[in-house]
Amino acid sequence: MIQTINSVFKAQQAYKYTLRNSNATQRINKLSALKSSIEKHEKEIYAALRSDLRKSEFESAITEVVFIYSEIDYAIKNLSNWMSPMKVGKTITALTAKNRIYYEPKGVCLIISPWNYPFQLMMAPLISAIAAGNCAILKPSELSSETSSILCRVIDECFEDSEICCFEGDAAISTHLLSLPFDHIFFTGSTAVGKIVMEAAAKNLTSVTLELGGKSPTIIDETANLDDAAAKIAWGKLTNAGQTCIAPDYILIPDHLQAIFVEKYKVAVQKMFFTESGDLNLNSYAKIINNRHFNRIEALITDAIEKGAQMSYGGKGDASTQTILPTILSSLPENANIMKEEIFGPVLPIIPFKSIEEAISLINSMDKPLALYIFSQDKKQTQHMIKNTSAGGTCVNDVLIHISNPKLPFGGVNGSGLGSCHGQFGFKTFSHERAVVFQSSFNMSNLIYPPYEKKGWVLKWMKKLM
Ligand code: NAD
To answer: Model-level pTM?
Structure first.
């Protein structure tokens, strides 16, 4: 495998110079071919997602496959415009020059993806890489092996290895890939592995985009519509059984509203994820990816209860189906282990607060989150919460939906990531913005050439004009 990787890398390094001359029509044709290949294998993709994560076809369509179709369509529609050199204004020191920003492909890119949305999280950056005219080597997650396998087949059917090539494998394969001098690395995964990626990239001074995770808080203030908040949070928390990078991780709520919210959350969950006879509906509720994560989440629940949290709902797990019931841990003490790591499971801890400032300072004491959600009807207080915190993205009175608009940048900040993706932001991530100045044959450059003793009048005029 290592030898094959090395020879594909070499072939891509040679081919990137041809590819950088591709025009919009040629890149659009590649994106269309990719879309056709996905359409051809759509049923197999759904089956693989069902097998890896027990995702329903509906959930897989919305969060993975249809999401990717719309990202492709959006790129196809806007690519000519994105590729056009951007005109920028002149400076006083070069009045006769034309100034442009060229979007040149970075070259050969490495894309490493995680298991939780195993199709979408590889395809979305790939679309941007293709749109920007790059070669790419892809390394999907070994934990979602069925989806990784069909994904590699989709790629294999529409691209030569010297342009785009997919390698299935684990951390050892990633480690070898990371030692190669790629022109850009796009990594989606945990913060811990993100640090390893950045350290490896530094050895080759390779640029990186890091799409990481972390704890995304939700603040509910005293003016919020609690029915609405409960339904939206239940959907956002329990989609993919909580294994979503931007799932609401924990709730901060005024003390006196905690019990009311808990009851409303239970009602919302019952309606969405249970059958009329009261059983958990496994057709709408994903499983935990593997036993290691199942045990990790169970241990977090046990630790929280031991430290004084109340189990207000759920709590039980079934190891044979890798299913954990939707769970609420209320009055969570801050020293519980569940506050020290991203939960990535269907457990909702609730921390009551006495003042908004208390909630803000708790959020600011941790890594900057990938998402921060606010439920409030008070516009002034909402602005106060936005301005006094930092996060990759925020929804006010909703959750998750900011990811679905390609006109918005998607990404984290510091501990939750570096750089952004989707739409034109993804195109720019995989492009180098190159400054190009075309000087006219008639120019006044000699005005600034030495000897400087005789240029006092030039400086005087420049200061006036500036
Ligand atoms: P992970 O970091 O364990 O693995 C991600 C990828 O890195 C996989 O392909 C894996 O094979 C590879 N990898 C693992 N260990 C490695 C090592 N030591 N060296 C090099 N490569 C290595 O993450 P995961 O468990 O697959 O995914 C869950 C994490 O991803 C969560 O933290 C989640 O929040 C985050 N995530 C972020 C986003 C986002 O868009 N910001 C989206 C989805 C998931």
So the answer is: 0.94
